[in-house]
Queue: 2 jobs
Job 1
Amino acid sequence: MNEEERATLVAYLDGELDDEAARAVEARISQDPAVRAELESLERTWDLLDYLPRAEPSPSFTNRTISRITAARQASQHSSQRRRRWLLGAAWAAALVLAVVGGFEAVSLLASHEPTDEELTRDLRVLENRKQYEQIDNVDFLKSLDHPDLFGDDDPDVGG
Amino acid sequence: MAAIGDTSAQLSLRDPDVRLMIAVRDDVPGAFEELVEAYQHRLINVMQHLVGRSGDAEDLAQEVFLRVYRARQKYRARCKFSTWLFTIANNLGLNWIRSRQRKPVVPLPAHDSGPLGPRPAEQLVESRDKPPSSRLQQEELADVVRRALDTLNERQRMAVVLNKFEDMNYAEIAEVMRLTTKAVKSLLNRARANLRTALASYVYTNGDPVPAGEDEDSEE
């Protein structure tokens, strides 16, 4: 009996053949004693597996399994808490770095601001008198100098 | 076996264990304990026949349950629950065996049952009421069959265990082992032939000739 024929016989024993194929195998079994002997030896061998003892779980198996799952769950929770804390810390650090860098950039931008021509024209008078303005503490003092009693009026007769 | 195209709802109606697994996925209190209780016997039995030692079988079964628990949120009912469970068991068991083969350990004598001592007679439930000589014969025969099973490679052994003890058909075994049904047919054919060779003297007790020319395994 070749490999393919034996595979068909095994498939027959396992109930894997369709009706037509099963009938063909049954016809061969009834006609050929060698095929019948092959079938019986395969069947007897298979039946010997029934002598294998069925494994029984130890009485504490369920409890031990659940304990292991509980431990794994707690470890996973701790790990995710640690991850959450780490992420929060990283977010704060990133925000701080962003604030410092942003502030630095803003200050740099303002400090390095070059006035435009328009701005210079507008502020020309101030710039020309800058040294004088620097002598004066505040604008109110400047306004008080404008009082006519301090420097007399503009009478053309007095000046000759 | 679930037909292709079955919806999750159809499967959960047909397979109560799919409903149980969905309860596990939804963190229903007590559901996981119920699942462990329901499947521990079958899973440990399959693992023990696959790896041969009860302590290792329990450790592996625990690991399977742990993986089921970890994967619960991703669980989608695409096949029978047992098919999914034994797919995880198959991957884990075969990897375990392969890693042990890479790191060989000193084998124990054939008569030694390991650090747990002799196998309890309770494991041979059917033989309890029989006379001691008959029980001894059964234990010896169990040992012989165990060793014959160990002569198979791990894939043949898994296919045999799923077929014999889990009543899985070729299509289900193919799904669990990620093979074609044709490959499963070949695997079981070779396995049966190898078992017959290993158990020849126990099969042919009435003087029948042992068929010659049984060859070694080379599926596909």
Job 2
Amino acid sequence: MKIIETKNLHKTYNSTQVPVHAVNGIDLSIEQGEFTAIVGPSGSGKTTLLNLIGGLDDPSEGEVIVNDVNIGGLSNKEVIDFRLKNIGFVFQAYNLIPVLTARENVEFIMQMQKRNKKEREARAIEMLESVGLGDRVNSRPAKLSGGQQQRVAVARALASKPKFILADEPTANLDSKSTENLLNIMHELNKKENITFIFSTHDQRVVNQARRIITIEDGKVKEDKES
Amino acid sequence: MELIKIAWRNIWRNKTRSMVVILAVTFGMLGGGFSTAVMLGAVDSRVDKAINNESAHFQIHQDGYLENPEPGLYMENVQQLISQIKGKDFVSGVSNRLLVNAMIQSPHNTSGATVNGIIPEQEKQVSNLYENLVVGSFFKADKKNQIVISKSTAEKLKLNVRSKMVLTFQDKKGNLTGGAFRVAGIFKTSNKAFDEMNVFVLRKDMESLTGFSEHVSHEIAVLFNDNDDLKERTAELFKITPDNLDARNWKELNPELGMMSMMTEKYLSYLVAIILFALAFGIINTMLMAILERKQELAMLKAIGMNEGKIRIMIIWETLFLTAIGSLTGLMLNQALVAWLGKTGINLAAYSEGMESYGFGSVIYPSINGMFYLQIVALVVITALVASIFPIIRASKMKPAEILSSN
């Protein structure tokens, strides 16, 4: 089942004298349950493409269709709500709320979804256990390692029951062991629960685990292959 | 609830920065609150003394007497009116006075004053003058032609207790009359002008010298149980006062005092509002720094689906916490200081002469009322809301894609 489709997607930045075509006519289709890596050199347009798919940025031209909804046609308020209900995000810098514990960080997104307290607590603990942090639920981010923080971020992304997860360079700040650990967890979740993962990455270890690899260069798809 | 919890924890992320702004608000509130308490204490004390030593709460005169205090402008058959007034449950005392303007002569000097012909038992119920004696007594029952004068009059005329002096004034028919009086007591209030302008004699002595009967009066002074409900009580006494008489409450009798009381309250509200307004800049600065430091986190919150409204609410709560903690601490310290100095008083004896010329006592007892605290709560909320506007605008301009990609 197709969950993401981009049609003739363009993003041009005009902040300098010479327009920068960060995304330059990308047509993509991503199916439910894919484990896809978007790779390419720095400045190739990977992050911009993820931002456009996640509704964080507006395309200059073209369409992003998620679950049959053209997110370019949504108002700002609607697109925020759409992200809350459909997309999970994992960022390179983890971006956890430092004043909340791991459990509270995971619960927070469910609270925004207005789920009841009992359900929130149970799912937060379940998600943290699924990423191997069942014993650190009450730790604040500062007390966790980088790898553990990123796993909390994955648990947070999963907690909202999204249609897919967008992960922008999720292993960039992690050591080898943490990277392997995180990749194993995401791979397991992908296999067992059919959760769609889309990564932008430089990391060969991530690329090695991906089942589909889309190579971007100069804002265009250079290669799209199944591994 | 989660937003409040996050907001509360957020303000303690940078404890030093938050404490600086909290302390600024604390001392601002302490300064504003204490200034308010001192000024209100001084004004309340002045009003209290004016009521209890000078005018009482309410006075009745013959129409036109206050504008032109002629002996002939007196009220007749006042006993029934006095009985009616005494019947009111909020009235604690009524004094029926005869008043004449007189020339006072001693062997050394001459002065002018209003002679108050009083019945001491009645007067004690409406005035604390008898408590302000510095020497002598407030009349002796078995003696005639006694007079109680102020210390400043005594000094001017070089008189002492038992000294003799002569009063000259008009009688009921406008003829010049007078008598020799012996000083029974010397008083001193905090109002120099009142002291210089008033002397007190027994009403029966004055009746015999002026020809006024016991049924007439120049001034009926009424003291209430307390200072509450002045408007309602005044209205009630108006109803039983005949139309040809002029009835006024203390604010109408001393319009400058009423205005001072009202203006002080207004001025103090503005003072505290200005202090909070100035503090708002510090709060804005702190909040802007906090927002800029957390832009990555705010961008993430926007990205994962936190709407603008919730971000605004979170910032407002943070601003409110900073403002409220400082304000509450400042007001609590202020309350403790006011409670302490309200008992011991602030002694300004070094400036007593200047203060007494304006009717103020030399010891000020700071006081503050509940309404002030209610006003502060309202002002604190308004300040927090105003101070959160700029941080909210800054946060709402943040574009998650730009901020998250720039990391």
